[in-house]
Specification:
Helix content is 34%, strand content 27%. The protein is α/β, with parallel strands linked by helices and 515 residues long. The longest helix is centred in the middle third of the chain and has 16 residues.
């Protein structure tokens, strides 16, 4: 290594996506042999910045220095040559191949023209032994837990002679025991001089494992501080740092409880004993808009999918609809109970893109529009006309394929499906993701109108200002648990972020240790 203090220097980095500035003249300085945290709200620019460092995005402005030497990183190959390895949140492993084959993929040792498997297995075992000698280099990746797969990714990074390892949300799918093991590995890597850049939403992890932390907000760096010099509330405030405009929601006349959840848990099928959701309790009334806020990995989507009959694991606990206990074993059963769901990805699971937009909108109510298994087309056209007028969908041509509509109007069509059904309970996952400001305001207005008509609404959003603006009540989630509940008109961004980041658990541990 050279005599430079910093192993990574990113100077005045700029990255645009279609006219939107995702990274805005960012400076990042990472010291040799440190664990450097990178935090911020969803959309702050953290992952984009690291994809630039990792060579995923080559069309950036600014300068990058590695150990004092200026480099231009145009591809992942350039990053590897510079000693940088990125472990993405979605692990980049081939499930059907062995551990050793994944570690040395494309770089297999050979004996003549053949792969030297014996040598490759021994090399893999040597790389893994400091972290977990129980991992068999011959085992298929699909046979390993997510935690052990993480260790395979780290071993691959070390086989590349990486001096800098970027970890993007590495604990989002790990059990508590696996998290502790990962932290032990990070400490060992640090002791050997390896530098770690650690992206996380969880402040408890920041204070447990990092030496310094850089906070990003809206594509810019707010500041870099020694972790020991700040407390949890200060860091949460740095992450948020903006004023919220007060929004008049008007007086609410809430009806009866339409949904009650008691001790709801979801246990992973792949790693039995790992709780995806744990002991969740809440209720929703007719006419109420309940916002769910949580950072990545909090369990927001998993909760909505469970309520809609598509859980990511084994369900325990009770769900009541209209005061009656029910078992919702499929989306069809959820719809029969009067529940609708707007999914996070409208193109992948909310729309049939090649189908006419109008026919998309009537899919949930086809049984009511059918006679002797034939669709009553005149009745369907009347419903579609009413929906298009109510939602102001543009262009006003329901025969147009859904794929030809703008993102905002596609989202309106997804909402139209459930408006036509007149659900008792509407679940929305990121209802305004990827839509422009005007469409966002219209969607917010529609959600309020549906609530005023008596529908209970639960929506999950990664945008805290949206939750504070739209919700009557906020449920805060962290690591699969419902950790705090508060009225939106009494909430502050700082308080919500304090609980969503898990800082409250750190404070509890400190209090217990003092006592």
């Amino acid at each position: 290594m050279g005599g430079n203090e910093y192993i990574v220097e990113m100077r005045s980095i700029v990255k645009d996506f279609g006219g939107v500035r995702a990274v805005d003249h960012v400076d990042l300085f990472v010291r040799k042999g440190e664990v450097h945290g990178l935090v911020g709200e969803n959309g702050a620019g953290k992952s984009t910045l690291m994809k630039i460092l990792g060579g995923v995005y080559s069309d950036y402005e600014g300068e990058i220095f590695i150990d004092g030497v200026k480099v231009r990183i145009r591809s992942p190959k350039d990053a590897i040559a510079a000693g940088i390895a990125v472990i993405h949140q979605e692990l980049n492993l081939v499930p059907q191949l062995s551990v050793a084959e994944n570690i040395f993929l494309g770089r297999e040792p050979t004996k003549g023209i053949f792969v030297d498997f014996a040598k490759m297995f021994n090399m893999a075992k040597e790389l893994l032994s400091p972290f977990d000698p129980s991992i068999d280099p011959r085992a298929r990746i699909s046979e390993l837990s997510v935690g052990k797969q993480q260790l395979v990714e780290i071993a691959r990074a070390l086989s590349l002679k990486a001096r800098v390892i970027v970890m993007d949300e590495p604990t989002s799918a790990l059990t508590e025991a696996e998290v502790e093991k990962l932290f032990d590995v990070i400490r060992r890597l640090k002791a050997t001089g390896t530098t770690i850049i650690y992206i996380t939403h969880k402040l408890r992890e920041v204070f447990t494992i990092t030496d310094r932390v850089t906070v990003m907000r809206d594509g810019k760096v707010v500041g870099t501080v020694r972790t020991a010099d700040v407390d949890h509330r200060t860091l949460a405030r740095m992450m948020v740092g903006r004023d919220i405009e007060a929004v008049e929601k008007g007086a609410k006349r809430l009806g009866n409880i339409i949904l009650r959840v008691r001790n709801l848990s979801v246990i992973s099928r792949e790693a039995y004993g790992k709780y995806i959701l744990s002991n969740i309790n809440f209720a929703v009334r007719s006419g109420e808009v309940v916002g769910i806020f949580g950072l990545m990995g909090a369990g927001r989507t998993e909760l909505l999918m469970t309520l809609f009959g598509s859980p990511p694991g084994i369900v325990k606990g009770e769900i009541e609809i209209g005061g009656k206990q029910v078992r919702i074993r499929s989306p069809i059963e959820a719809i029969r109970h009067g529940i609708g769901l707007v999914t996070e990805d409208r193109k992948a699971s909310g729309l049939i893109l090649m189908m006419a937009a109008g026919h998309n909108a009537t899919l949930p109510i086809l049984p009511s529009l059918s006679v002797m298994q034939f669709i009553h087309r005149r009745r369907e056209r009347e419903v579609i006309k009413w929906l298009w007028e109510r939602l102001q969908i543009v262009p006003p041509n329901p025969e147009m394929p859904a794929q030809n509509l703008s993102g905002g109007n596609q989202q309106k069509v997804v909402l139209a499906k459930w408006l036509a059904m007149r659900p008792k309970l509407l679940l929305l996952d990121e209802p305004t993701r990827g839509v422009d400001v005007g469409a966002r305001a219209e969607i917010h207005k529609l959600i309020r109108q549906m609530a005023e008509d008596g529908t209970g609404v639960i929506f999950a959003s990664s945008e805290l200002p949206e939750v504070l603006t739209l919700a009557d009540r906020i449920l805060v989630m962290h690591s699969g648990q419902l950790v705090h509940e508060l009225r939106a008109d009494e909430a502050t961004e700082e308080e919500v972020m304090f609980y969503a980041s898990g800082a409250h658990t750190f404070e509890q541990h400190d209090s217990e240790a003092t006592n």
